[in-house]
Specification:
Elements (H helix, E strand, L loop, with lengths): L10 H21 L3 E5 L2 E7 L5 E6 L2 H16 L14 H12 L3 H18 L10 H13 L10 H20 L28
Antiparallel strand pairs: 1-2, 2-3
């Protein structure tokens, strides 16, 4: 309901009533869970859109989160809210910092994964936003490490390529679970794992 629909009221009364209606709407939004909270080193807004979808968006500064929070309340109260996917703000470096924090206890981490992570950051760019990495970029990287020689002057085996691919796949899966990105680029195409030759030579005794 807008000011013009508040019939029987003077201009000042109409404005006052319209303001009260918006205030009631904004209060109801808080009841269903619209909030601003601190999460680690960031500030997050967390709410349900008019169509029932939960939306979370993180900001580095508290004032930016509060400003966006107030904006969303106003848009919903005025029925002008558009369910637009919030932009991804997490970089590849930030993902791997969190990934290292949570998975460095794994036996394979210091033996291999920490080296893979440095290769990933060098190839894709440490400051690249997660949603800027596409499926074709993943396929290109896989083919690149498959062609290039190792420090020992040898080509990587398909199993070695798959181990790197699996590490990157797992990191993006965790990024989705940690709400750093909406969707993993691995989900936008076919499987990138190579078929390994597991046959072993057997000798007759």
């Amino acid at each position: 309901m807008g000011i013009s629909s508040l019939t029987g009221l003077t201009g000042g009364q109409g404005c006052a009533e319209y303001t009260r209606q918006r205030l009631r709407n904004s209060r109801s939004l808080r009841v269903v869970g619209m909030a601003t909270r601190k999460r680690g080193n960031t500030w997050q807004i967390d709410y349900y859109s008019p169509n029932g979808k939960r939306v979370r968006q993180s900001f580095k500064k508290k004032r930016d989160a509060e400003a966006e929070h107030a904006k969303r309340i106003s848009l919903i109260a005025e029925s002008r809210y558009l369910d637009i996917k919030p932009p991804c703000t997490t970089t590849l470096s930030e993902l791997f910092a969190k990934y290292t924090e949570n998975h460095q206890h794994q036996p394979s981490f210091h033996a291999a994964k920490k080296y893979y992570i440095e290769m990933f950051k060098e190839h894709f760019g440490a400051d690249t936003k997660l949603d800027r990495i596409r499926y074709v970029d993943l396929e290109t990287y896989r083919n690149k490490i498959r062609r290039e020689l190792t420090a020992q002057g040898k080509l990587r085996s398909d199993a070695a390529v798959n181990r790197q691919t699996a590490c990157l796949h797992h990191a993006f899966r965790k990024a989705v679970e940690w709400e750093m990105v909406e969707q993993s680029p691995f989900d936008k195409g076919g499987r990138l794992f190579l078929k390994e030759n597991n046959q072993r030579l057997r000798y007759l005794s």
